[in-house]
Amino acid sequence: MTDLPYRPAAGVMLLNAEGQVFVAQRIDTTLEAWQMPQGGLDPGEDARTGALRELEEETGIPASLVEVIATTKEELFYDLPADLAGRLWKGKWKGQRQSWFLCRFLGADADVNLETAHPEFRAWKWAEPATLPDMIVPFKRRLYEDVLKAFADHLA
């Protein structure tokens, strides 16, 4: 597994007017974990375009309702646990290398629609940024800590 590459990906930390972060629960797991919108990049797609595409595909929120505030200076990484590495993404990747974008939500809660063409989430809520590492699956905890550090100057 160590010879496998990292999947190119992007994520969005979406803030509401109160400085809370959008998180959602995946449909494909019974875990009580919450995550921010994120996903793989299409071939030839730049990270910003991919991040905003993933946001819309997963939450129904179009790019016109977000303002990009900041981006991570470098890619952030996470490794899949051994039991998932051989199953997820057809066993082609050992984890992800992600560019993250901090965005301000310009819409209203009613603009969130998880009933997208290919639903990925079953529930969503706004959460305090500091609580993110405790909400995510354990193998992504360090990644979320790194995202928080990267955007610390922009968080209340």
TrEMBL record:
Q: Where is this motif: Nudix box?
A: 39-60
A single Gene Ontology MF term assigned here is: hydrolase activity
Q: InterPro entries annotated for this entry?
A: Nudix_hydrolase, NUDIX_hydrolase-like_dom_sf, NUDIX_hydrolase_CS, NUDIX_hydrolase_dom, RppH
* Alphabetized UniProt keyword annotations: Hydrolase
Q: Extract the signal peptide range.
A: none
The cofactor named in the record is: a divalent metal cation; Mn(2+); Mg(2+)
EC id: 3.6.1.-
Instruction: Name the job this protein performs.
Output: Accelerates the degradation of transcripts by removing pyrophosphate from the 5'-end of triphosphorylated RNA, leading to a more labile monophosphorylated state that can stimulate subsequent ribonuclease cleavage.
**NCBIfam families, from UniProt?**
PRK00714.1-5
Provide the family line: Belongs to the Nudix hydrolase family. RppH subfamily.
Q: What is this protein called?
A: RNA pyrophosphohydrolase
The record lists the organism as Sphingomonas naphthae
